[in-house]
Amino acid sequence: MKVLFTFYLPSGGVETLNRLRCESLQKCGIECHVLYLRPGTGGHNQATFPVFITSEDEKIKEILLKHQYDAIIVTSDYLMLEHLRELGYKGILLYEAQGLGTRAYAEKLIIDAVPYLQRFCSAVLLPPTDHLLELFIKICPWLHRYVIPNIVDVHSFRYIPAEPPKDPVIAWVGRLERNKNWPEYLEVAASIRRSKPDLHLWMFHDPDLASEGEAEQFEILLHKLGLHDRLNVFTNIPNEIMPVYYSSIASSGGFLISTSITEGFGYAVAEALCCTCPVLSTDSDGVRSFIVHNSSGKFYPLGNIEAATAEGLELMNNSKIRSAIRQQGRTHMVTNFGEGPYAKSFREMINSFGIF
Predict the structure, then answer these.
(1) I need a surface site. Which of 102, 106, 166, 314 has the fewest CB within 10 A?
(2) Alpha-carbon distance 332 to 270, whole Å?
(3) Each residue's pLDDT tens digit, 9-41
(4) 82-108 in b/e burial notation, b at 16+ Cβ within 10 A?
(5) What is the pLDDT of residue 255?
(6) String of b and e for 330-345 (b: at least 16 CB within 10 Å)?
(7) Neighbouring C-beta atoms of residue 129, cutoff 10 Å
């Protein structure tokens, strides 16, 4: 059995997902390849499977003819469904909904995708994200749905003992765009700093993926809130190095904050929990798979800076709650998001099309 995964570029959660699932599926006898249409910063992450980077029709057609894939999974880019058919692919074609942004944006995108899903697609693959499932049931009731939790590398992402930072750290991972809601990160940090004057901020992002004008607005708010001397920015950190940073954040007495309006899955949250780094998050849907409030992490209401401050300070000041959340977060991830369940569910999905 041979499958191909396609996406725009190797970056963010989808690059992580593709790398992890291809490694896992290949152990189960499913040969996996990935096609990205253009280069991205995740391209430096090492892969044990073929990765093609091209948007040239002739090269894509050559790949399709050479490898004769049993199934192709097209992530997010519904226009690619038609394009692959135009290039001669006649096999099983699945659309995967990942990283579609806010509910309103996801709804518009799915409505726009309907003609392509009807004509070219065999089924849709989803993470267990309520709003995505509801939208596909509402907009595409005729389209068969497979719901499979994304795989998380619970073995590599673990706590790594090291000399902790001198001061507590509140970290944020994402893109400078509105759905990731970066202004709320700065506002919460500024509020917590009133109680923790030695607080430091760590920010992990890819400047190449920032929305137009967002970097400039970020700098303005950063200086307005008086945080410019407290911030360390990390760009394009290889995924395999992130356990060191998450462990350092945990050791510092700080936490990771996720301020997203909507998340389809939330790899940064999942990976931080694996490293026993406590997480404070908005209830952005996708992260409900990981966070049980005051058990494996903490939630706060979107936009409520006062509530976020109170929850964040409790994570930092209450050692009993902090210790319990760190341990329970790791246990939850190991129990529910290892590679075995993903490979089993994926094979069952492919087998349902008569491919063995």
Answers:
(1) 166
(2) 10
(3) 998 889 999 999 999 999 999 999 999 999 987
(4) ebbeeeebebbbbbbbbbbbbbeebbe
(5) 98
(6) bebbeeebbbeebbeb
(7) 27
CA geometry: angle at 82 spanning 78 and 177, to 5°?
Answer: 25
Question: 177 φ, ψ to 5°?
Answer: -150, 165
* Reported confidence tier of residue 102, pLDDT bands at 50, 70, 90: confident
Q: Which of 207, 181, 211 is nearest to 305 (CA)?
A: 181
Average pLDDT, the chain: 94
Listed residue (110, 101, 73, 290) closest to 180, CA to CA: 101
Mean pLDDT of 250-272: 95
**Contact yes or no for 322/315 (Cβ under 8 A):** yes
Residues in the chain: 356
122 CB burial (10 A radius; 0-12, 13-18, 19+): middle
| H or E element at residue 347 | helix 339-351
pTM metric for this prediction: 0.83
Per-residue pLDDT tens digits for 77-100: 999 999 999 999 999 999 999 978
| Partners of 123 in the β-ladder | 94
C-alpha 232/C-alpha 228 separation (Å) is: 9
Cα 257 to Cα 300: distance, rounded to the nearest angstrom = 10
The token pair that represents 337 in the structure block: 């998001």
Phi then psi for residue 172, to 5 deg, are -140, 135
Q: Which helix (H) or strand (E) is 147 found in, with range?
A: strand 145-147
Q: List pLDDT tens digits, range 329-355.
A: 999 999 888 778 889 999 999 999 999
* Cα radius of gyration (the chain): 21
Sign of the alpha-carbon torsion through 212, 271, 157, 160: positive
Band (270; pLDDT cuts 50, 70, 90) = very high
How many whole angstroms from its chain centre is CA 239?
Answer: 12
The predicted structure's pLDDT at residue 101: 82
Per the listing, tokens 């350092």 go with 248
Element (H, E) at 212: none
Angle between helix 182-193 and helix 214-224 axes, rounded to 10 deg: 10
Distance CA(195)–CA(197), nearest Å, equals 6
